[in-house]
Amino acid sequence: MARRLYALGRWAARHRGRVVSAWLLLLVVVAGLGTTLNGKLTTEFSVPGIESQQAQDLLKEKFPAAAGGTARVVFVARGDTKLNAPAEKQAVAASLKKAATVPGVVTVSDPARTGTYSKDKTIGYADVLFRQAASDVPDSAKDALSRAMAPARDAGLQVEFGGSAETAKTEVGGPAEIIGVVIAFFVLAIALSSLLAAGLPLITALIGVGIGVTAVMFVSRFVQMTNTATVLALMVGLAVGIDYALFIVSRHREQLVDPETEVHDSIGRAVATAGSAVTFAGVTVVVALAALSATGIPFLTIMGLAAAGTVLVAVFVALTLVPAVLAFGGERLRPKPGGGRFRRRRDTPKLPGAWGLAWARTVMRAPVLVLVVGVVGLLVIAVPALNLRLGLPSNETQPTDTTQHRSYELLSKGFGPGFNATLIVVVDGTGIAPGDRAPVVRQVRAKIAADPEVVAVAPPNASKDGDVTVLGVVPKAGPDAPATTDLVNRLRDDVGPPVSRAHGQVYVAGATAAAIDVSAKLSSALPLFIGIIVILALILLTIAFRSLLVPIKAVLGFLLSIAAGLGAVVWVFQYGHLDSTFQIAAAAPVTSFLPVLLIGVLFGLAMDYEVFLVSRMREHFQHHGDAKEAIAQGLARSGRVVSAAALIMAAVFGGFIFNGDPIIKSIGFALTFGVLIDAFVVRMTLVPAVMALLGRRAWGLPHALDRIVPNVDMEGASLPPHPSEDARGSR
To answer: Domain range for residue 108?
Structure first.
């Protein structure tokens, strides 16, 4: 592999103009397609086959009026006024009359007729039902609905919006994300000791992520995609794009320290060595993200493939565009004698990687103590993960300044916390004799009303042909409470058998039930996904390092990182610690797909650091045969770059922690914490400790495996001899 990449790197350097032009042209074309022919992103996380989705599909077919999106308009009287006062009633009625004229609206309820007032008559609500499904209601209709409330606002009423059709918009590219990129630039400048060299990885990464993300936007025209898919592609693509370019640029400048090294040859060797590690690490990330399809959950599959595609673009950028840009840099990228702007003064020289060398030897002095302290510390951080609860974010977790959060709080105040967790019980009476349908529905309603965790059951609402009946159920507890999950499961067990005996079918559905079903589906898929990831890691790392103990160590370290990352997420988001620091509106269950996503993304990134770190150790061991010195020299050569890469990842991911969307916020936090823990605790500390304990045994491979495992040559052993011509030779 090294020889082919060496040739590719030299070719890109020689044809630098064509390569750069081709990438820029591709960026323009793909960006044009993605911005003009993009599809509509959804905020729904549906899973085919779960009970709540089956009910939704049935309602679309048999009872379209009950399957449309709903906007719940909340009215609040100010001061000493009441909503049932004549002036307030008239203002609400005028607003709702205008709401009925909004395109797509089917029906509008009026609290004056339905009696949907709080006990003190200060809070009330009206439901505006749209013809389209919640995710298909256009923004123009929502804006028109907001404008229709002008009479109520003019009368001094507070108006807020909730419901399935009113979802908060996800926005990226705010100040926090921009600050993350700025921090990444300064880390690059310090790591590479050059402002020019620091700008190269940032520019190439932005080109790569621009192509990747806009391509994903174009694909959304043909495939239903959640809004978090593009954000994940942006997060991961930008982070790995910067890191992969950093590894190659850093290796190139390291080689250029030798004044006899010719620029194009150095570029080729950097692509052959660091590029081999980039290729291997990138493929690992791509396969790990693509493996999300093994969960059998479509929206998660799309998210994984979208991010994987962006990572694949980042790999090709690193192997072709980066060497072309390095060729344009030429001699200007050669480190100056005595260091650069960020190095020490010339009269106080410092060996390259001196701190990494010192750290490695410190760890190796007491490897057992380091290992015990590190493992115990990570396990302590992981303890909260034992209480992990999964769910989908409700409006309570939206930023406190959004209308969705305010409507949630007002409805909880006026009608109780369970009002925001309303369930929909759907009775399919297609197979029930027409004369028996009403008694069966009454039996179901009575059984539901008798449950101690149920506050109210709405009167049954039947379809025109009488085949399907819908009942609204208000629980005592809120949507995220364990009691509500127990209630959903209990209702399914209690009301299902009587309806089945009558040859009908009953479903417990609604947004709350859907969140419970999605979480259960993801929980069941987690063991299979972890198994796939572990087996994948063992195979790939065995091929990379021709070792059995190194892959086992890497997998165990990865599992520790995952456990610690989940523990931190539970402690912050589920327990509610540091909520003001991270601007968390309310403590709630962890986003249901976050553990699977964290495992997939962090696995790929952890293997990145493992490959870059251990490959330099193996390179030294192959040349000198000294296992302990290989650890020290490997960390000295790669520690600075791996540390910079982790800080860049953390800066990019960390910028998303302050995004308003609770899902993106939790993903950003999980990846930031996980990357820092894996890079600095597991890879930079525990790995050298374990390698010191293993010694030469770390590089052993059983004879049977040695014959079948291919030699990928990541260290460049097959490269031609180092040329002796002057560095100012042919270019």
So the answer is: 69-162
Strand, helix or coil for residue 730: coil
Please give the Cα distance from 170 to 167 (Å, whole number). Answer: 9
Q: What is the DSSP string of 444-481?
A: HHHHHHTSTTEEEEPPPEE-TTSSEEEEEEEESS-TTS
Nearest Cα residue to 344 out of 190, 187, 188: 190
pLDDT recorded at residue 350: 46
Eight-class DSSP state of 163: S
Check residue 720 and report its DSSP letter. P
How far is the C-alpha of 636 from the C-alpha of 310, rounded, in Å?
Answer: 31
pLDDT surpasses 80 at 353: no
Burial 184-212 (b: 16+ CB within 10 A, else e): bbebbbebbbbeebbbbbbebbbbbbbbb
Unique residue bearing structure tokens 């052959």: 272
Same domain, 196 and 80: no
DSSP element (H, E) containing 243: helix 227-256
What three-state secondary structure class fits 561? helix
Q: To the nearest whole percent, how much of the chain has pLDDT over 70?
A: 94
In-domain check, residue 727: no
Instruction: Compute CA distances 228 → 582, 637, 664, whole Å.
Output: 19, 37, 7
Number of domains in the chain: 4
- 369 plus 277 within the same structural domain: no
Calpha distance 551→287 (Å, rounded): 17
| Residues 116 and 200 reside in one and the same domain | no
Same domain, 544 and 639: yes
Contact indicator for 124, 109 with CB cutoff of 8 Å = no
CATH number of 109's domain: 3.30.70.600
Number of Cβ within 10 Å of residue 307's Cβ equals 32
Q: What is the dihedral of CA 114, 118, 121, 125, to 10 degrees?
A: -50
pLDDT in tens, 406-457: 999 999 999 999 998 999 999 998 888 888 888 999 999 999 999 999 998 8
Same domain, 109 and 149: yes
CB 287 within 8 A of CB 24: no
- Whether residue 278 is contained in a domain is answered as yes
Assess whether 482 and 614 both reside in one domain: no
Residue 715 has a pLDDT of 60
- Residue environment code for 84-120, b if the CB has 16+ CB neighbours within 10 A, otherwise e: beeebbebbbbbbebbeebebbeebbbbbeeebbbee
Count of Cβ atoms closer than 10 Å to residue 697 Cβ: 12
**pTM for the whole structure:** 0.86
- Asked if the model's pLDDT at residue 255 lies above 70, the reply is yes
Instruction: Summarize pLDDT for 38-86 with one digit per residue, the tens.
Output: 877 777 777 888 888 888 888 888 877 677 888 999 999 988 889 989 9
Q: Tokens 């990357």 sit at which residue?
A: 675
Q: Which single residue is written with the structure tokens 């193996």?
A: 618
721 — pLDDT class (breaks 50, 70, 90): low
Token pair belonging to 161 = 């919006």
Q: Is 226 helix (H, G, I), strand (E, B) or coil?
A: strand
Residue 243 tokens read as 């890191």
CATH code of the domain covering residue 3: 1.20.1640.10
Helix, strand, coil share (%) of the chain residues, nearest 5: 65, 10, 25
Average model confidence (pLDDT) across the chain: 87
